[in-house]
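Why do we bother with holo predictions? Because pocket geometry can differ from the apo form. Keep that in mind while you read this record for protoporphyrin IX containing FE.
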Amino acid sequence: MALATRTDRRPSFARTVWDSSVGKKTVMAVSGLIMLLYLVVHMLGNLKIFFGAAEFDGYAHWLRTLGEPFLHHEWALWIVRVVLVVAVVAHAVAAYQLSRRDIKARPSKYVHKKARTSYATRTMRWGGIILALFIVWHVLDLTTGTVHPDFQAGHPYQNVIDTFSTWYGNVIYIVAVLAVGLHVRHGFWSAAQTLGAGSRTRDRALKITANALALVLTVGFVSVPVAVMTGVVS
Ligand code: HEM
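The structure, written out:
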């Protein structure tokens, strides 16, 4: 009896899905929706800053005790962090591989570059890169405090005020938040199409939902730096 060789082996179901473009788009849609859910919760949580330091810092403390005593201290937070990291990596790798495929599939190198990639595609690629860089900066700024000049662990209210008391803090966050809005607007629509939610009757409602989500996220996130800059929150 001949031994099975590597080439005889059938690829696993997961491998077949991941290798197909539809599979990669599905991974992007699902991971994108997970991140979107996180963003909505994070934006709503940030609005607690309007209720003062005690409430905002208390909320940050609660995030660490969530699920206790069933879960150990900070475990719920770490579960969320692991899910988010997996989602970010899967989203970025699938996006990179799909764009490589797209470039390879182009018929000729002589066609005008601008005509080949649509405005939406370019915005999504650049927006994705800006957001990936922002997330690294943001975690170093407000979670670990590595790039924050006066970081105080356990005092996120004061840390946020300090961040938005510098011009570059405001520029970085406002640019990132605008990128979030643009990314969510197109990304939500694309995810809905990939997951089969699109149809002639539903497309209008999906577009309205995508625009509303993008607007609510942008306004909600941007309200914090604007409130600090104008002295509403201090
Ligand atoms: C003006 C806008 C924002 C403010 C004021 C803000 C505020 C904060 C604060 C205070 C923390 C630390 C929480 C803690 O340690 O308890 C944090 C963590 C975080 N934020 Fe934001 N954030 C903003 C926008 C964003 C955006 C746009 C994203 C994603 C694109 C994001 C993603 C994250 C992530 C991934 C963490 C780390 C969570 C962790 O593991 O501790 N944030 N944010």
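The domain at 19-104+120-229 is CATH 1.20.1300.10 (3 helical TM bundles of succinate and fumarate reductases).
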